[in-house]
Amino acid sequence: MSLRRLAPALILFVLTASAQRQRPANAAATPAPGAPATPANTPKQPTDPAATKNPLPADKSVAQTVAVNGRTLHYSATVGTITLRSRDDKPTGEVTYVAYTLDRAKGEPARPVTFALNGGPGASSVYLNLGAFGPKHIPFANQGDSPSDPATLTDNPGTWLDFTDLVFIDPIGTGFSRSLVDEAETKKLFYGPTPDMEYLSLVIYKWLVQNDRLLDKKYLVGESYGGYRGPRMTHYLQATLGVAMNGLVLVSPYLNPEFGDGNLSPIPWMITLPSITAAHLEATGKLTPEAMQGVIAYTRGDYASALLKGRSDPAATQAMIARVTEMTGLDPTFVKYAGGRLETGAYLREVHRSQGLIGSVYDSNVTAPDPFPYAAEQQSSDPILESIIAPSTTAMVDFVTRTVGWKTDARYNALSYDVNRQWDRQTDLRRGAVADLREAIAADPKLRVLIVHGWNDLSCAFMGSVLSVDQMPVLFGQGDPTRVSVNEFPGGHMFYTRPANQAGLHALAATMVATH
User: Fold this and answer.
1) In the 8-state DSSP scheme, what is residue 255?
2) Is residue 271 scored above 70 in pLDDT?
3) Are 94 and 83 in contact, with CB atoms under 8 Å apart?
4) What is the pLDDT of residue 37?
5) Sign of the CA dihedral 175, 180, 184, 187?
6) Is 338 left (phi over 0), alpha (psi -120 to 50) or beta?
7) For residues 271, 273, 278 and 281, what is the CA-based torsion angle, rounded to 10 degrees?
8) Domains plus CATH for the chain?
């Protein structure tokens, strides 16, 4: 299978073309936590000998400004590197980051600091940085955006810099971050769920110590597969490294893979239906929070019941198929032969087939012409993935090398297919991150968790988080039921790229930081 067919999820765990055919959305392929972060054995020769001959530049900062809500914020943008070492103190990897810290006069109170990671595995943090809440912004991932649009950075009115400093981390193999050991050792040290979250947690610890920020309020943001990393890193930082986060923000998270295979369990289909319905409601100008509450209620109730009854109640099945057809606007014959169970890959080909278009798994209303419309299965890459690599790479490399002056001609990996290919998917990821989330919340009664989704996202559908949080009441019996909240926005996986959503996301995060 070619890399194009792998179509690894941009900020999400892998969704191969075959996986999309075999299971419904939100059932990503399954990696697994596995090896220690810093094994004792000495690293072997670097995979790329040029890494030792051409070391990355020293940390570099530049003064910047951004206009936010009528204010001009003065801040420093820093591109830096944190070196990882084995137990015998040999360098094993270099992790690069971009930090934005507001200028403060001596004696001013400390500021919170927020660390941010995307997912993949294999995605750099450029998407949260330049698309969500960094101080600069470029448009991408929405209908009509083109890879050849000018990658010109502008002030981001939705930046979080007005209430927290920001540190965007690129995992090994992404951005300019790189391994200094051979391929086998790299996979062992960095390309598995447990070593991944352990070394990234260590990077946060090291940054806090190096910058004298251990006593400040601390927050962690993870998107998609970063949403799997987030709870595990929060728990690991809290229980092993001795660093407690004040809050955790999970953006379109890949949180819980254990929803069943869709043959007996209704839950996989319960997860896809609301997002498919949301896309139809948006396309017809009817998408509102009130409409979506009705969709969620039907999904939890009559839809789940009809699926469980199956052939024992033909009348309930027929009523369900009619209702699903009405909700989604799909061809009645398609819904009938699908049994009301809407598989993601089939839906994305069907929904815009009459126009010769194919929808994106990240937002099915973002489309592109299907170059292989007569093929039995999708042959092309995802429309959003095809459009975001060029603008995000160009803008980030220009900012780092020209604006900040961190001079390197090393390749920048906005999305690494190689990391995705090498990722360990064999061990215990199937337990998901919900267990760590429960433990972190139980251990710290002040920890707050904000989960945010786009309604149209079929890669990490919002209903998966809703159902996961529904099953966590034991944690809230003696506490605040709002400690873990799920919030939805119009849009898809990267709903934050829509200007209309920036203010709402900013308000949610700012309130959490201000009050917790």
Assistant:
1) -
2) yes
3) yes
4) 32
5) negative
6) alpha
7) -170
8) 50-257+389-515 (3.40.50.1820)
- Residues across the chain: 516
Percent of the chain with pLDDT over 70: 85
Handedness of CA 17, 493, 349, 258 (dihedral sign): positive
The tokens 């989960």 sit on which residue?
451
- pLDDT score recorded for residue 143: 75
Is the pLDDT reported for residue 45 higher than 60? no
> Which of 402, 442, 457, 100 minimizes the C-alpha distance to 279?
457
Of the two residues 447 and 377, the one the predictor is more confident about is 447
Nearest to 52 by CA among 97, 92, 84: 92
Amino acid at 10: L
231, 248 Cβ separation under 8 angstroms:
yes
CB-facing half-sphere around the CA of 71: CA atoms within 13 A: 12
pLDDT at 340: 95
Say which DSSP state 46 is in: -
Tell me how far apart the alpha carbons of residues 172 and 190 are, in angstroms, rounded to a whole number: 7
The pLDDT value given to residue 488: 96
Buried b (16+ CB within 10 A) or exposed e, 161-198: bebbbbbbbbbbbbbbbbbbbeeebbbbbbbbbbbbbb
pLDDT recorded at residue 427: 67
Are 456 and 280 contacting, i.e. CB atoms less than 8 angstroms apart?
Answer: no
The whole-angstrom separation of Cα 91 and Cα 44 is: 10
What is the pLDDT at residue 505?
96
**With 80 as the cut, is the pLDDT of residue 411 above it?**
yes
Residue with tokens 């890669």: 459
Distance of CA 269 to CAs 119, 224, 342, 451, Å? Answer: 24, 20, 7, 21
From CA 14, how far away is CA 7, in angstroms rounded? 8
Q: Is the pLDDT score of 419 beyond 50?
A: yes
What is the Cα–Cα distance from 272 to 443, expressed in whole angstroms?
33
CB 433 within 8 A of CB 224: no
DSSP, collapsed to helix, strand or coil, labels residue 98 as strand
- Please report the DSSP string for 346-387 in residue order: HHHHHTTGGGTEEE-SS-TTSEEE-S-TTSSS--SPPHHHHH
Token digits for 390? 């060029």
Other Cβ atoms less than 10 A from the Cβ of 78: the count is 18
Distance CA 484, CA 469 (A): 8
C-alpha 366 chain-centroid distance: 18
Q: What are phi and psi of 448, to 5 degrees?
A: -115, 145
pLDDT given at position 381: 86
Q: What is the mean pLDDT of residues 256-283?
A: 86
Give the pLDDT confidence of 306-315 residue by residue, as tens digits. Answer: 999 998 999 9
- What is the C-alpha separation between 299 and 306, in angstroms, rounded? 10
Helix, strand or coil, per DSSP, at residue 222: strand
